[in-house]
Design brief:
InterPro entries: dITP/XTP_pyrophosphatase (IPR020922), ITPase-like_fam (IPR029001), RdgB/HAM1 (IPR002637). Its EC number is 3.6.1.66. Substrate binds at residues 8-13, 72, 154-157, 177, 182-183. The active site is at residue 71. The chain has one domain (2-194): Maf protein. Helix content is 29%, strand content 23%. By secondary structure, the protein is an alpha/beta fold. The chain binds ligand CZF and magnesium ion. Ligand CZF binds at residues 8-10, 13, 43, 70-74, 87-88, 100, 120, 153-157, 160, 181, 183. Residues 43, 88 line the site of magnesium ion.
């Protein structure tokens, strides 16, 4: 089976990429599974694209092979786009999902449901040494619930209700999330490239 390195230390993302790539007979390998410890890559960019490129290109330089990276986040209209590229560390460096959720809910405390519109954004960067990095972007629109519900997924999934659903992303079964998510919508475009269409 072929392998593809995913430049992430996020177990939730890694699991989703394993599901996406399995039908292509490709094993997704995260940075946590490599034999050598990889230092954290500082995400100094100001856009999802810049941070995804930083992660993919740094690891492609180290490994010498093709690498896929994902930079993603939650964009909330009533918070002027926050937490955005700062989603992982919104409530502090410990990257605590529950603390991040609590911070968002408290900032939206007095905002009515119809004004709680938001979207998940995912930018994938595919880097290969000496090649131009390719980007694929996907989004998933929805709104922020009043309180967390559901056990699946990761990050802000317990407070994100996708458009057309009454459940949060964390109440949807993983295969359901993986059919509508921002990450899937970005991956669909990469898929076309993997199949040799583009
Ligand atoms: O509920 C969620 N469902 C998702 O599907 C999702 N995708 C992203 N996010 C949030 O956005 C941050 C990404 O930040 P990010 O791209 O820097 O990743 P990260 O720091 O977690 O790992 P790495 O890939 O950088 O190693 C994550 O931590 C989460 O808080 C999500 N939340
Ligand atoms: Mg990160």
């Amino acid at each position: 089976m072929k392998q593809m390195i995913i430049a992430t230390k996020n177990q939730g993302k890694a699991k989703e990429f394993k599901d996406f790539l399995a039908p292509f007979d490709i094993k997704a390998v995260s940075l946590l599974e490599l034999p050598n410890t990889i230092d954290d890559i500082e995400e100094t960019g100001t856009t999802f694209e810049q941070n995804a490129a930083l992660k993919a290109e740094t690891i492609a330089d180290i490994t010498g092979g093709p690498v896929l990276a994902d930079d993603s986040g939650l964009v909330i209209d009533a918070l002027d786009g926050k937490p955005g590229i700062f989603s992982a560390r919104y409530a502090g460096e410990s990257k605590d999902d529950n603390a991040n959720i609590e911070k968002v809910l408290s900032e939206l405390e007095n905002i009515s449901l119809e004004k709680r519109t938001a979207r998940f954004v995912c930018v994938l960067a595919m880097a290969k040494p000496n090649e131009v990095t390719r980007f694929y972007k996907g989004t998933c629109d929805g709104h922020i619930a009043n309180y967390p519900k559901g056990e699946y997924g990761f990050g802000y999934d317990p407070i994100f209700v996708p458009n057309g659903y009454s459940e949060t992303m964390a109440e949807l079964l993983p295969n359901e999330k993986n059919s509508i998510s921002h990450r899937k919508n970005a991956f669909i475009q990469l898929e076309a490239w993997l199949k040799g269409i583009r």
